[in-house]
TrEMBL record:
The keyword Protein transport does not apply. This is Transcriptional regulator. It comes from the Bacteria. Keywords: DNA-binding, Repressor, Transcription, Transcription regulation. Residues 4-73 form the HTH merR-type domain.
Length: 128
């Protein structure tokens, strides 16, 4: 049987704040959360696993929106292959975007160098 964990204990175990847990819960990242008649939300061991997976995915550079699209896939089957495939897809897009940004920055850098050289030439001509 899964243990029932209150938000404070879950936050301590996961190394996050209760506010973070509430936010993730609002986004649907924690899956099903049990609420009893007393108003308390009870979390399971899976909630802790999900929080740990969210942390890993954030460290890979995924946004919370991207994590929303992939988190449930990790808990559908034991090998987690669907989740991993989706993360590879997302990271490939990140890489493509990064390459485009780097190309644009390199072009901008070349323009700066060209402008600097042109202005330096004018300064040198006026100095003589």
């Amino acid at each position: 049987m899964e243990s029932k964990i209150l938000i404070g204990e879950l936050a301590r175990r996961a190394g996050v704040t209760p506010r973070t847990i509430r936010h993730y819960q609002e986004l649907g990242l924690l899956g099903n959360v049990e609420q009893e008649n007393n108003g308390y939300h009870y979390y399971s061991d899976e909630s802790l696993k999900r929080l740990n997976k969210i942390d890993v995915l954030k460290n890979l550079g995924l946004s919370l929106e991207e994590i929303q699209s992939v988190i449930d896939l990790y808990f559908e089957e034991p090998s987690m292959i669907k989740g991993k495939q989706k993360v590879l897809e997302i990271l490939s897009k990140h890489l493509e975007e990064t390459d485009k940004k780097m190309e644009a920055l390199d072009q901008f850098r070349q323009e700066i160098l060209s402008n600097m050289a042109r202005i330096q030439l004018m300064v040198d001509e006026l100095s003589n």
